[in-house]
Amino acid sequence: MNDPLVSIIIPTYDRPELLAQCLRSIEETVTPPHEIVGVYVAGDDQSRLTLDNFRARSIEQPDRSGFVKAVNLGLRAARGEYVLTINDDCVLLPHSLANAVRFLLAPGHERVGQVAFFHNSPVSRNIYTQIQLDDVWFYVCHVRGLCYANFGLARRELYEQLDYYDERFFMYGADPDFSLKVWHEAKLTVVPCPGALIRHLELNDDRAIEERARQDEDNHKLFEKWDL
User: Which of 67, 106, 133, 174 is in Cβ range 3.0-4.6 Å of 169 for a Cys bridge?
Assistant: First the structure.
């Protein structure tokens, strides 16, 4: 597609079945013109083949150097006017992307820089707001009272203006950090969209355990950077 409205960035590693489920949810639910940009690690042939099967653009990451660097590779290659970043263990609920785009463009939302998607992570603190759908609770979180997007839609030019994700983070601090840049550096707001929902599976596999080991380090960097 020459002129996609939205670029959907998906970093992935060694989860071809989950990746296929994620890609299928995009195929079945996303109506605005879009492109999928999958970032896979060199040697992960199953992920590359899965991306190819769904006609996604594939970008090779030379080595497994973290979620943030993978996202930035995708962001720099994005062609859409708007960008959404999600994980390979996520499923988009119907109409969510179109709702988020309409929300960002709605009258009175000129100062909205990033639209936060609701997600069903099992959180118990720092909840900014929540909604229930079919007996499942979906959340948006905050950092020191400011809404941030675990999964967010923003204009590509805003990512460029804010120099993308801070690569000092491996994974966990990057989402709140980018939203804080939207608030403090771009002087825009981050607002949840009730019609934009993501089902996040959050597996407890070896990869997840390895990544969570970096959580405290990332959070320390976040708190130090913003004096939280």
Answer: 174
For residue 156, the domain's CATH number is 3.90.550.10
pTM confidence score = 0.93
Contact 19, 88 (CB under 8 A): yes
pLDDT tens digits, one per residue of 74-132 = 999 999 999 999 999 999 999 999 999 999 999 999 999 999 999 998 777 899 999 99
Tell whether 1 is covered by a domain: no
SS3 labels along 96-155: HHHHHHHHHHCCCCCCEEEEEEEECCCCCCCEEEEEEECCEEEEEEEECCEEECCCEEEE
Please state the domain count of the chain: 1
d(CA 1, CA 23): 17
